[in-house]
């Protein structure tokens, strides 16, 4: 390799791992994701350790866990007492670019984000947060609001393609493309993708209660339409990279920030500890390193591990402020996989996971086989995901599983001790970090 690889990091919002063709979904149409999986290392247990928008994004950009970067709720502002992803790549000689949804500024979802709060990104076409995908705006370097043409994920993809096509700098680049879909509202994808799905013909996961079947099928049809739209744009991004002659020396990632329950367990949205909420697709293609040797990795990878992994693959130093670990040696096969538990947590339930919505604080682990979760009262959930892949039989407190519960609880406690996490009530952390809360435990925000 003549220089460090380019890095293209594409992630959607609220796309669960189960909803890709290559993952076994019989209904969804994702030919480009499926093709990419045949050229990539696929992490089948990519865990969103704090499965909600802002905490994930903060962990992605810092390589830290939520109690360190302090983003434990949406609509609060990420600080600067760390080396960010963009800053680390800039120090390594990269140009950096970010296009799409940010959701880390905390100064209003439609307001201009000045350069000093962009965490080191240079090229910038961003809005803090919107889910009005067909009436979507962004800012660049000045406080002049501009509008994406049509469905924003398509327009953002076109901008990313132009960035790649017109890039003439001898430096490598880090390009982050952050799509808003398939996050609800589910029914707003372009019509040509909506027409692909008949709700009545869709297969439900067995853990969807019968009384939610019709509603879930309707939501899935719209959700799948968004995903198929993104699949189309993903294919166009891949073609742009390949046509530009950048294929071999570009580290290309597709993933999402967290999943979506969509009726499973009778639940909706994210923050929950079940697989539909915490697991995301994660495909990594880098032919110069991997030699087109596609394979699956079953060892869980957590959000704070992404930043150090990208830096390590690019032969760049990992900042001392990073808490995650690099997975390069497992990606290349230099190390054998082992059952490394991934910490999952809800530090402070908010929004659609408040107390009145059956939300609760929790800490847990997702291993290759088990999910174990503790709430403030003790063991809450225990699933054998090998024997019970839809997590329909909670073994916590069941006769014959005390030894396993104790073993997993010990592993969880070791991680909490390492993280210096005392597992207090959410309000303790919100007050300590100085965050305002409304009656639903949500940080008030303005559009």
Describe the structure in your own words.
With 447 residues, the chain is of the alpha/beta class. Helix content is 27%, strand content 18%. It is built from 13 helices and 17 strands. It has helices at 31-37, 53-62, 66-69, 85-91, 152-165, 191-194, 213-243, 275-278, 287-290, 306-313, 328-331, 402-418, 426-432, and strands at 6-13, 41-43, 46-47, 95-101, 123-127, 137-138, 146-147, 173-182, 250-256, 279-280, 282-285, 295-297, 301-302, 342-346, 362-366, 370-375, 378-384. The strands form 4 sheets. The protein has an 8-stranded mixed β-sheet, sandwiched between helices. Strands 14-15-16-17 form a 4-stranded antiparallel β-sheet, with helices on one face. Strand 15 (362-366) and strand 16 form a beta hairpin. Helix 5 runs parallel beside helix 7. The radius of gyration is 21 Å and the shape is globular. The mean pLDDT is 96.
């Amino acid at each position: 390799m003549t220089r460090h690889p380019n890095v293209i990091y594409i992630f959607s919002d609220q796309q669960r791992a189960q909803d890709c063709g290559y993952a076994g979904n019989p209904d969804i149409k994702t030919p480009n994701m499926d093709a990419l999986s045949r050229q990539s290392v696929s992490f089948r247990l990519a865990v969103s350790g704090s499965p909600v928008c802002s905490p994930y994004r903060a962990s992605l950009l810092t390589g830290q866990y939520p109690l360190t970067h302090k983003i434990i709720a949406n609509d609060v502002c990420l600080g600067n007492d760390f080396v960010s992803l963009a800053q680390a790549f800039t120090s390594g000689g990269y140009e950096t670019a970010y296009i799409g949804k940010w959701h880390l500024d905390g100064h209003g979802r439609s307001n201009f984000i000045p350069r000093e709060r962009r965490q080191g990104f240079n090229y910038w076409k961003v809005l803090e947060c919107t889910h009005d995908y067909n009436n979507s705006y962004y800012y660049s370097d000045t406080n002049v609001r501009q509008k994406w043409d049509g469905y924003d994920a398509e327009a953002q993809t076109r901008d990313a393609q132009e960035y790649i096509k017109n890039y003439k700098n001898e430096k490598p680049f880090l390009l982050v493309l952050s799509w808003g879909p398939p996050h609800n509202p589910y029914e707003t994808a372009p019509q040509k993708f909506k027409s692909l799905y008949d709700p009545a013909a869709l297969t439900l996961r067995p853990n969807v209660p019968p009384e939610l079947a019709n509603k879930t099928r309707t939501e899935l049809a719209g959700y799948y339409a968004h995903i198929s739209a993104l699949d189309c744009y993903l294919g166009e991004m891949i073609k742009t990279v390949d046509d530009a002659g950048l294929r071999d020396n570009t580290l290309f990632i597709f993933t999402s920030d967290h999943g979506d329950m969509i009726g499973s367990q009778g639940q909706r949205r994210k923050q929950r500890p079940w697989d539909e909420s915490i697991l995301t697709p994660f495909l990594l293609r880098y032919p110069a390193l991997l030699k087109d040797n596609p394979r699956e990795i079953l060892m869980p990878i957590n959000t704070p591990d992404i930043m150090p992994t990208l830096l390590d693959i690019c032969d760049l130093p990992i900042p001392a402020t990073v808490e995650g670990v690099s997975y390069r040696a497992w990606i290349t096969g230099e190390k054998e996989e082992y059952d490394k538990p991934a910490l999952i947590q809800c530090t402070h339930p908010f929004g659609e996971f408040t107390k009145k919505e059956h939300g609760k604080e929790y800490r847990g682990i997702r291993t290759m086989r088990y999910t174990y979760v503790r709430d403030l009262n003790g063991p809450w959930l225990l699933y054998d995901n090998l024997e019970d892949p839809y997590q329909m039989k909670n073994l916590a407190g069941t006769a014959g599983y005390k030894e396993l519960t104790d073993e997993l609880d010990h592993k969880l406690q070791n991680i909490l001790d390492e993280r210096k996490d005392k597992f207090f009530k959410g309000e303790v952390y919100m007050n300590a970090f100085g965050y305002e809360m409304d009656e639903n435990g949500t940080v008030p925000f303005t559009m």
